Queue: 2 jobs
Job 1
Amino acid sequence: MILNGKELSEKRLAIVKSEIEKTDLKPCLATVIVGEDPASQLYVRMKHNACGKVGIRSVGVELPGDSMTEDVINAVEKLNKDPAVHGILVQLPLPRGIDTEKVIESVIPEKDVDGFHPLNNGRLFSGRPDFVPCTPGGIMTILREYEIDPAGKKAVVIGRSVDVGRPMAALLINADATVTVCHSKTQNLAEETSKADILISAIGRARFVGPEMVKKGAVVIDVGTNHDENGKLCGDVDFEKVEPIASAITPVPGGVGPMTIATLMENTLESARRHANL
Ligand SMILES: Nc1nc(=O)c2c([nH]1)NC[C@@H]1CN(c3ccc(C(=O)N[C@@H](CCC(=O)O)C(=O)O)cc3)C=[N+]21
């Protein structure tokens, strides 16, 4: 079975749209982008497009690539204080030289629709999540909508990043899975991944996960957005070879990526609701 993130994201976006139309909420997402990385510009554009589709207002702050940490924090603090702004997203990665942790901590947790602030992280890890990071949040929505219950299953996450691997592990723990987190220092990765009932790959290497790493009947979730040697967009998983042995698998494109954006819209709507005490 192919887990159609594109289709599911459209369904979720339609729900967000109708919720906004039903209320007189005027949700607003602010994005902050530093420098001119074309991939980051593309992602931010996609987020603004999604806002436009569902009726979320969006404002974009663009700072030069040679900005100092303080400049970025100043921009964030303006948005913190602006009552019309409900969500703040600082596009990552930030240019080298900028203290990413400091910038993330400058976003007030109430507007942290990315779920990257340590307070929201801590809440997630203590089992009382508030804003959940959009990629792992979107993956949990995929699992729920396709009625894949992680409870009691063995889940293996490859990657331990703050934006994907770590919160993914926390969400799966909260959903009663038995969770293993693998990373660059893991010895015998294939031995670990082959035990997974649910395998989540967030490595960032084109077609790295082959069939020898996957148990027959496993659910395979591919977070990778890579380009292969021909410049073709592909995931971490060798889809052609893994799809036949998986019971369910997300494609790239059209899997996790669109769900990331849909979850960002949901988080922004939720923030606007709270702001209005609805
Ligand atoms: N503060 C912050 N929050 C993020 O959520 C964040 C970020 N920084 N930095 C970069 C990553 C990456 N990311 C993606 C979102 C959508 C797709 C997506 O929709 N991809 C399409 C394909 C798009 C294409 O054609 O390249 C798909 O998979 O179908 C991919 C990647 C959000 N990120």
Note: The radius of gyration is 19 Å.
Job 2
Amino acid sequence: MTGQTLEAAERLLADLPPTAAVWCSGLRKRYGRRTAVDGVSFTVDRGEVMGLLGPNGAGKTTVIKMLLGLVRPDAGDVLLLGRPATDPRARARVGYLPELFRYQPWLTAAEVLTLHVRLAGLDVAAGERRECLGLVGLADRAGDRVGGFSKGMQQRLGLAVALVARPEFVILDEPTSALDPIGRADVRDLLLSLKERQVAVLLNSHLIGEVERVCDRVVILDKGRVAAAGSLPELLGQSEVRLRLADVSAAAEQRLAAAGELTRDGDTFTVALPADSGSDTVPTLVADLVGLGVRVHAVEPGRISLEERLLGILRAGREGDPT
Ligand SMILES: Nc1ncnc2c1ncn2[C@@H]1O[C@H](COP(=O)(O)OP(=O)(O)OP(=O)(O)O)[C@@H](O)[C@H]1O
């Protein structure tokens, strides 16, 4: 290929939309007679935070290891930042916090980061490496040896390792398992700042509240298969509003029913709002009810939580299972 043709090809490639952070299709893995992962496919787009949920043994860590080229799939394909998962050029752009983390106890925190920057083949200035330790709350422990770190401090260091080489895609396998509540809140802020910087994230966590707060989309694995996947509105469905009311006339009840499917329990009326409801649906409903002479004591927005939805999906998957 001539230099000119190569340049033209590079220009063409540069004009293409960026490839997904990760794409996988039909992933399968067996360990002996046990099937750990059975036909898993999904995509994490650039700048997207994807939650990977599922009970113990569902296959989450095995999927993550296959995405990273650390475990060889029996079947299926992976593209990591548009390249094969085993391609060092792709891996150098990915930050990874493993579920089980251990760092060289004889090195200081700063030395661990320096080592990982070198492994990624990058040049990250000392100031930026220090900033990274600051980001995970270890600024004042940079010169201390990892051997003397608590488990939570080692997990914080693992987060810094995952972030220090300016990754385009970050995979965090249970990043808050050893962290205190402040540490968990720090990780939440960190995830939001990655999202702002268009860094894609795959987050495996049993802390469903955290996943619900930060993730754009969720994949739920159960027994090695995808049991459900989608954005939070898709998975959680329509929202509802609960109103505690008095002096409800027939006309007011009609108005409530016109807003969505209506159920009543004493003086509490619950309206399931259709998916296309706008932000003014509830204020307009309340104004109309007041206009119809209703006394409004309470208005509470509500939506099924991700935890309720997850339990529903997993229980449905076990119906008919031998106990
Ligand atoms: N190296 C291995 N050798 C044998 N079996 C394995 C191996 N790794 C995973 N498995 C099996 O594969 C299945 C999925 O395990 P995996 O660790 O992927 O689950 P997980 O969803 O990450 O679970 P957890 O939430 O408990 O971390 C389990 O039945 C596990 O015993």
Note: The mean pLDDT is 89.
